[in-house]
Amino acid sequence: MSLFSTTLSVAVLVALGGCGSKPAPKAADKKIAPEVKAPTKEEEVAPVETTPVSPSLAVSPDLAKLCTLTRQDGVPPTFDYDKAELSTEDREVLQQLATCLTVGAAKDKELSLIGRADPRGTEEYNLGLGARRAHVVGVYLQRLGVAAERLGETTRGAIDASGKDEETWRRDRRVDLELR
Question: What global pTM score does this model have?
């Protein structure tokens, strides 16, 4: 057997040996998304009345007062349909909130980030979309210096949605931020 045929045989065996299984995906290859489950009856809680502070964000009254966040008149908290991207206004509010959480009045507080969706789509899809929205807000706050362990991401999907048409569905597509 020549050196060429030996090298070729080894190459073929190595290639065939690799066909039996896929390599485990690297952490960087995995899509970052929180695991989603529907809330149980025991986890059902009355929704907290929130104050819109940007197109996609609403905060609980106690958090708004603590961090002196004010309502943007006429701007309901909304994500675009089937989207989880933050607007410029959302980022500005999150910057204010991150400052409050890192060096301001809420520096020792923890937050719940509750992703929500309008009622269109399946329950599973809406729970996933709400989770992605909450996760986007959480990641952005972490980039601004808020420790991950201070942020509890959850989803309600469309469980508390009340919209009946496009105008009212927009109000259902948001992330609520509440002190916990």
Answer: 0.71
